[in-house]
Design a protein that fits this description.
Helix content of chain A is about 40%, strand content about 20%. With about 150 residues, chain A is of the alpha/beta class. In chain A, helix 4 links the parallel strand 3 and strand 4.
Chain lengths: ~150, ~150
């Protein structure tokens, strides 16, 4: 666990915010170093696959030259949606720290719990890590939208 | 419903097979026309995101210039895994025809049922469509691996 990594994910989230995107950011860490970063750019890219986590996974696979992200940890500011939770399982990320809980779409316990007996190994999940920072950013964004 | 669309998805699956990939193929249809195709190329691209469905969704978003695939149907030879089922929900595909059931990873009823009350609208799901063709292709592939 390392606060710096979540702060880096928050920096990514701020990049999304500056583009008017829902502010979510993620980093992937291997052997104590950040190897990939991503932020939500669904509107910018007009692409449903361009969430923070999938952007980071795409980059990490390129960096490692493998679809298996064994030994990698993800730090992400929001609890992953089903697509991103699935991408985390299928890429074999070993642990996930997430900030804000997502009661509506979160797939690591809030809306759905992903459980595949005899299938994927479930990563270690640490929810609510540095949640105040992560929630604050999202709250401010949605408050701005309602103005 | 149209057999031609599943046959086109099977053609995609055969492209994967020829590359030594798990043979899964998908097409996306809008207004009675195929607008995007995809096949599993996870090994070829060394990328965890390169499943048949996500490849097709990526292309369909590019074709339509939007992350919202409203009014689109997907035909896919295998029941979608969590990542792909999530990508289908988040891109708002309205219906999915899938061929073979996947007891281990399938997220439209077999291993997990995706249900998000107050969240995503669940697409119309038609499972087991032309299942013999789709299962046969997968069975032959895995039989070959065990030889």
């Amino acid at each position: 666990m390392n606060r710096e990594f979540m702060l880096a994910a928050l920096e990514e989230a701020k990049k999304a915010l500056l583009k008017g995107e829902v502010p979510v950011g993620a980093v992937i860490v291997k052997d104590g170093k950040i190897i990939a970063r991503g932020h939500n750019r669904r509107e910018e890219r007009n692409n449903a696959l361009s969430h923070a986590e999938t952007e980071a996974i795409y980059e990490a696979c390129n960096v490692l030259g493998s679809w298996r992200l064994d030994g990698c940890s993800m730090y992400v500011t929001l609890e992953p949606c089903p697509m991103c939770a699935g991408a985390i399982l299928t890429s074999r990320i070993k642990e996930v720290y997430f900030g804000a809980y997502d009661e509506k779409y979160g797939c690591f316990g809030s809306a759905v719990t992903m459980n595949f007996p005899g299938g994927f190994q479930t990563p270690r999940i640490i929810g609510g890590y540095m949640t105040d920072f992560c929630e604050g950013l999202l709250r401010d964004f949605f408050k701005g939208l309602r103005k």
